[in-house]
Design brief:
The protein is an all-alpha fold. It has 9 helices and no strands. α4 packs across α9 and α7 packs across α8. The longest helix has 17 residues.
């Protein structure tokens, strides 16, 4: 299936989902400031993070805690903007090259958050191991980065 249609399917599934996030599961793993980052996310993004973390653990029961925490927080940078379904669809289908800073308002800001959400999340995560995995979740460099990327891509 062409990439465009896979993306469109993922977007529609995310938009139509009414799944409540399993916050109790997530908060068992998260530490300190990570909890606030997680709770600041839209419930749909939290539910997605929990699904990714559970998928990672199902496949790799030996996953270190920092990998599970990265799975839960990998999209935390998206919390810089309110969840607007039409923006999510548009920016999910088309992401022009935009610089990360200065962060703009409007549609340009939406494109920035879509493209640079790993950076925005990583800047707020104190643990360097979690930060590194969040940064690479779209372009994996490490073993756990690849595993996180795969677990994220299965939706």
């Amino acid at each position: 299936m062409p990439r465009f249609f896979r993306r469109l399917g993922r977007l529609l599934k995310a938009l139509l989902s009414r799944e409540a996030p399993d916050d109790a599961f997530a908060l068992r793993f998260l530490e300190g400031e990570e909890r606030g980052l997680y709770l600041a996310m839209d419930p749909r993004d939290r539910a997605h993070g929990v699904r990714v973390a559970k998928r990672l653990l199902a496949r790799y029961p030996e996953a270190p805690d920092f990998a599970v925490r990265a799975a839960l927080l990998h999209d935390a940078g998206k919390a810089l903007r309110p969840y607007r379904p039409w923006e999510r669809v548009l920016t999910g289908l088309y992401a022009p090259p935009v610089p990360p800073y200065p962060l703009r308002r409007g549609l340009v800001g939406a494109f920035q958050v879509r493209r640079h959400h790993p950076l925005y999340a990583a800047e707020r995560i104190p643990d360097p191991r979690v930060r590194a995995l969040v940064l690479e979740h779209h372009a994996p460099q490490s073993l756990w980065g690849r595993r996180l990327h795969l677990a994220d891509g299965e939706e």
